[in-house]
Specification:
mainly beta; two-stranded antiparallel ribbon; 9 strands; elongated
Length: about 120
């Protein structure tokens, strides 16, 4: 994901926090954590997706990276939505990790009155 110095305003992004699945045998069992902010919304059909890019924490002497896209928007009520991502990290130290995560809602402090 690249960032343009001219573009200083974000309009629609989501925070994404998660952990990978555990891999390895009993002596080398480990997982990784990650935290990121998605890219801007990308129109897809009648909905949209987001680019998701992250680097995990440094555990067991290495880290992993991921670059992909989220699911389309999943409505959660109150005019809000989340996104889902399920995939694998890149291969490092002879293995990769599966992960699944749901984004946080966009604009969490933007409450709308509902009658």
């Amino acid at each position: 994901m690249s960032y343009s110095p001219e573009c200083k305003e974000q309009k629609h992004v989501h925070e994404i926090v998660g952990s990978t699945a555990t891999v390895g045998d009993c002596r080398d069992c480990h997982n990784h954590r990650f935290c990121t902010v998605s890219g801007e919304a990308i129109r897809e059909g009648k909905s949209h997706v987001h680019e998701v890019t992250f680097r995990t924490d440094f555990a067991d002497g290495h880290f992993h990276e991921f670059c992909g896209k989220s699911s389309c928007a999943i409505e959660v009520g109150g005019g809000k939505h989340v996104h889902f991502a399920k995939a694998y990290t890149d291969c490092e130290d002879g293995h990769r990790h599966e992960f699944q995560a749901a984004s946080l809602i966009d604009s969490p402090l933007d409450f709308k009155c509902m009658d």
